[in-house]
Structures
1.
Amino acid sequence: MKIAIVYATNSGGTQLAAQIVAETFAKHNLTAEIKEVQGSMPADLKNYDLVILASPSWDYEGLEGEPHPDYRPFMEKFKGEDFSGRKFAVFGLGDSSYTYFCGAVQHLEDFVKSLKGELVTQSLRIDGFYLDQQKSSQQLTDWTESLVTHLNG
Ligand SMILES: Cc1cc2nc3c(=O)[nH]c(=O)nc-3n(C[C@H](O)[C@H](O)[C@H](O)COP(=O)(O)O)c2cc1C
């Protein structure tokens, strides 16, 4: 199974989180390629059986709880693409002191739906990644483990 983890980050947290997810897949002999959202193209992502989208939540043009700005051109490129029957999963980093905690996750889920992709598991929302890295890592590991179980089922 080919897996891609597409991410964007401002302070490195989402990149670290992507690495934790990839390491967990590796323990199950599954290889996940980590890709920056910038430069990721529809034709390329169609080569993967599972695409995981990851983003922090951020302000964007006066709106709160938005995906990282690099997701804007990415989403534009994908307009009109058909990913019917293709598997996706989403995770986000955020901070529950903001009004729209992990708001980016909803945007990414809507994006997957617009492509007719299939969300294979409940999305993961990490609160304060750097505040308790051990807890955050555990949440990411548990989420990936359950994803693997689901994929094998
Ligand atoms: C300017 C700014 C705006 C943010 N807006 C939100 C938000 O609307 N919702 C949320 O849950 N977190 C918000 N956050 C928190 C970040 O998403 C969180 O710190 C995340 O871990 C950053 O991930 P990164 O290290 O990958 O950049 C914001 C942080 C900053 C600095």
2.
Amino acid sequence: MTNSPDWSAHYRASDTPWDLGGPHPELSSRLQDGRLAPPAPGARALVPGAGAGHDAIALARRGWKVTAIDWVPELAALVGPLLERDGGRYVTGDAIEFDWSGTAEADGFDLVWDHTFFCAIPPDHRAPWGQRASTLVRPGGRYASLVFPVGKPAEEGGPPFGMDEAALAGALGSLFRVEEHAPVARAVARRQWREHWLEAVRVPLAVS
Ligand SMILES: C[S@@+](CC[C@H](N)C(=O)[O-])C[C@H]1O[C@@H](n2cnc3c(N)ncnc32)[C@H](O)[C@@H]1O
């Protein structure tokens, strides 16, 4: 998949308006009260488009073994060591096409946490990402997303490209069952567009 825009240039210039400087407050709240607790010790989480890693590190501090992937190599030195302390790591690469075979993560993840990743990729990459997600999340595992920017008209372009729960659920497809979708209780005040939460469970493949 093409790297467009030049995300590295944004980080080099500290032009990162999406960066909250800490984990998203809704994620923090759900980690704190146990709603997003790891299902078992050693449960694995993947954070695609992890950026400066605030969410990834928050997940790791709450017991998830976190793999963050982003195609900005400069972020590796910043985020990698903080994840390695808890058994995770930072991977430089394309979240949609990265080949996990032969890695510690080859058996998949119990959680994919998506915060402004789906809205960052070009809309024609959404279906390939959704298909990929269904192979990355183990049956019984979850795809949790901070759905943003809800209400942004498509003609305004992006990133961030406008999205909503239907767009994400459509890309994830029938191998995911949406269990929750609602406006977040703890939205980021300075964000111009609405924020929702979506959580979907990866269902097992039907055996005929
Ligand atoms: C809007 S930023 C969000 C970063 C982080 N999730 C946050 O909330 O601060 C989008 C991130 O996704 C990364 N990205 C976009 N497309 C990607 C892809 N196909 N594979 C890996 N990373 C990607 C960019 O490099 C950037 O760091």
